[in-house]
Design a protein that fits this description.
The chain has 16 helices and 24 strands. By secondary structure, the chain is of the alpha+beta class. The chain folds into 4 domains: about 130 residues, no CATH class; about 80 residues, Arc Repressor Mutant, subunit A; about 325 residues, no CATH class; about 60 residues, OB fold (Dihydrolipoamide Acetyltransferase, E2P) (Beta Barrel). A 5-stranded antiparallel β-sheet has the order 4-3-2-1-5. A hairpin with a 6-residue loop joins strand 16 and strand 17.
């Protein structure tokens, strides 16, 4: 019976009854910071369970049992279980058991017994029936032993974990057994989670960078591990959704040979060019023939946004297998040695005397494509097949420059990684400056401009790319410093469904359409053009805007992952070469500091300057304080 001074159970903690009546006043302890505070509250009888009639004057007498007292009670409970197990009684009250354990049961004893019974494997706590006293049934021997074994395993696991935490603090793991504990650290380093109990328990910061550092220091990761694509939510494997074989449809056969000109390391040729004496032809791979809007493949490509190009290789927006059917010029040669036919979406452009687009048409075509490297194309620049293309490209560039186009020339590098050996082999190359690379660029710009004009003329909802006029200073420095300042003057590009000028390119309207195998925005543009050509419904403006926004966001993530990956491998390259030195050029003065560019490795950095240095000043630097997880490095002048 619950009276004043009784001990009761309230929300699984002990409470003292201070007043009875229609409602019962209880007192219980709560924690605030490091202090225990006694609180008073009125409750209903159904909110509490009876523990002991008391009388209890104050809760301060209720203390936790000592380890020895707990052990003694546990031993007694086992003896009592053996005694009671022969009986067929379904349950026992807390007082029933207390009378068997203690000679005289006090409120303090009953609370200690309740807390111990709660975790005792030989007894099972039954659901509470307020305000009745808690009751317990006896577990079978098999059930109890199973729980004991489980608890023993848990204790052993806790011991192992604590041992691991100690070793982690010392950064001396016992591998491979400690590897399972480091899985969550790897998940944090890869950006798959933002927390790690392991790092918190060991007293380390819960950051991807710290996780990366520990994985390196403990030997689980090597410098060859690049976590940055994963951190941006990107797969380092190419898409696995297979494209269907190209559909059989009516296509125009374009006579003659067209040329796919690219870097020597290119493996996915998706454009080719030719001039037939009247028209410029820009042929583009045609995966939109089978990648239909909102299909499984289309959605997967939208989520990727673009092919991810990192030094380890390419993670393709569309599957590797599709290249055989949809890339240009990869088919087997015919018996006469000429290229086999490739399917393309072709842009036929007629230019006026000034080099401006006079007419732009689009066709589904079959075309013979011959692949050339930039170096091979330069060697053939005076041939009848390529000479007109070089001339047209030069005229187009001059036209754009007159219209305000901005031409920026800054150092570029190509970095590749071979991970077949234990130590990754990193190669940093400076691409050759070729005339044919500018030819390809101008032809792709003509295709983009021609596609935009075609879409606008035919009222096709289309992804237009624009850029506001840059804020170029009236006086630009000479040399590399001037080019750097020019780049910083440029505005960000934007993609929308309303045509607008692209000031940086000097074009009144523009769209990207030349890489549907590796850019989702280009693929959507092709889907719209093909729908129009086939007299089918095009994607509405609202839906189109939503799709290109999603694709552009994913593409932006890929770009950031590519930059981080390039920096990662550049730092590994320098870490492998502790004696490395390189030439740096001052491109901006910032008080006591300067911005330098290091053309050899494509790096930009801020260092402490010298008052005698001017723009375009050349100096030699070495690399120091390289921290791979933080992607940080200090360049130190040694002149």
């Amino acid at each position: 019976m619950i009276n004043k001074g009784s001990l009761v159970l309230y929300k699984n903690q002990c409470a003292l009854v201070t007043e009875t009546g229609e409602k019962i006043t209880i007192q219980f302890s709560t924690t605030s910071g490091k202090k225990n505070i006694l609180e008073t509250q009125k409750v209903r009888e159904k909110d509490i369970c009876f523990l002991h009639s008391g009388p209890l004057s104050h809760l301060n007498t209720i203390n936790d049992s000592t380890p020895q007292e707990k052990t003694n009670i546990q031993n007694q409970l086992l003896e009592i279980w053996e005694l009671l197990s022969a009986e067929q009684i379904p349950f026992y009250t807390l007082s029933d058991i207390g009378d068997l354990v203690f000679e005289k049961v006090s409120p303090e004893d009953i609370w200690a017994l309740y807390t111990i019974l709660w975790e005792n494997p030989w007894y099972q706590k039954l659901p509470l029936q307020p305000p009745e006293q808690p009751c317990f049934s006896l577990r079978s021997k098999e059930e109890a032993e199973a729980l004991i074994a489980k608890e023993s395993e848990k204790e052993k696991e806790n011991e192992n974990r604590q041992g691991f935490i100690t070793r982690l603090k010392q950064k001396k793991l016992d591998l491979p057994s400690d590897g399972k504990f480091m899985q969550e650290v790897e998940a944090l380093a890869l950006g798959k989670t933002d927390k790690s109990k392991v790092l918190k328990e060991a007293g380390f910061k819960e950051t991807p960078e710290k996780a990366h550092s520990l994985l390196l220091e403990t030997g689980i990761w090597t410098l060859a591990k690049n976590p940055h694509p994963s951190r941006w939510g990107l797969s380092m494997q190419s898409a696995t959704e297979h494209l269907a074989k190209p559909v059989q449809e009516e296509r125009m056969v374009v006579h003659g040979i067209s040329y796919a000109i690219d870097n020597k390391w290119s493996t996915d040729p998706d454009d080719a060019i030719a001039f037939d004496g009247t028209y410029v032809w820009i042929h583009i791979a045609d995966p939109a023939a089978t990648v239909l809007p909102d299909s499984k493949i289309d959605i997967a490509a939208r989520n990727r946004g673009a092919t991810l190009y990192i030094p380890e290789g390419a993670s393709r927006m569309l599957s590797e297998e599709c290249l055989e059917d949809y890339a240009l010029g990869l088919g087997p040669l015919l018996e006469d040695g000429s290229p086999s036919l490739s399917r393309a979406l072709s842009f036929r452009i007629k230019l006026d005397n000034s080099g401006a687009i006079e007419q732009s048409d689009i066709f589904k075509t079959l075309v013979k494509v011959q692949r050339l490297t930039y170096e091979e194309a330069d060697e053939k620049k005076d041939t009848p097949e390529l000479a007109p293309l070089f001339a047209i490209a030069k005229q187009n560039e001059e036209r754009r420059l007159k219209a305000g186009a901005v031409s920026i020339t800054l150092p570029e590098i190509h970095i590749s990684v071979d991970k077949t050996d234990v130590e990754p082999k990193i190669t940093i190359e400076k691409p050759l400056q070729t005339l044919s690379s500018s030819v390809v660029r101008e032809m792709m710009l003509l295709a983009g401009e021609g596609a935009a004009r075609f879409a606008f003329k035919n009222n096709i909802p289309f992804p237009y790319v624009s850029q506001d006029t840059p804020d170029i200073p009236k006086e630009l420095p000479e040399g590399l410093a001037g080019q750097y300042r020019l780049r910083r003057s440029m505005k960000s590009r934007s993609v929308g469904i309303t045509p607008s000028q692209h000031a940086g390119l000097g074009l009144g309207m523009y769209s990207q359409v030349t890489s549907p195998l590796r850019r989702y925005g280009d693929l959507v543009a092709h889907q719209q053009l093909r729908a129009f050509l086939d007299n089918k419904a095009v994607i509405s403006k609202d839906d189109l805007l939503e799709r290109i926004s999603a694709g552009d966001a994913a593409s932006s993530a890929a770009t950031k992952a590519e930059r981080k990956s390039t920096l990662h491998w550049t730092l590994v390259y320098l870490k492998q070469r502790p004696e490395w030195t390189g030439e740096a050029i001052v491109v901006e003065l910032k008080g006591k500091q300067v911005v330098i560019l290091i053309p050899e490795i494509g790096q930009e950095a801020v260092i402490n300057g010298d008052s005698s240095w001017e723009l375009n000043h050349k100096l030699t630097v070495r690399a120091g304080n390289i921290t791979i997880p933080e992607l940080s490095i200090t360049y130190i002048p040694i002149e």
